Amino acid sequence: MSGSSPTILLAGGGTGGHFMPALAIAAALRRAYPDWRVVLVGAKRGVEATILPGRDYPFHLLSAEPIYRREWWKNLRWPFLAARLLGEVGAVLDEERPALVVGTGGYVSGPVLWRAARRGLPTAVLELNAYPGLATRWLARSAREIWLGLAEAGAHLRVGSRTTVVETGAPVDPPDRDRGGPALLRFGLTGERPILLVTGGSQGARAINAAVADWVHRPSARDWQVLWATGRSTYRDYQRHHAPPDVQVFDFLDPMADAYAVADLAISRAGMMTISELCAWGIPSILIPLPTAAADHQTPNAKALVDAGAAIRLPQSDLSADRLASLLDGLLRERSRLGLMAAAARSRGHPDAAGRIATRIGVLSG
Question: Does the model's pTM come out above 0.90?
Answer without folding.
Answer: no
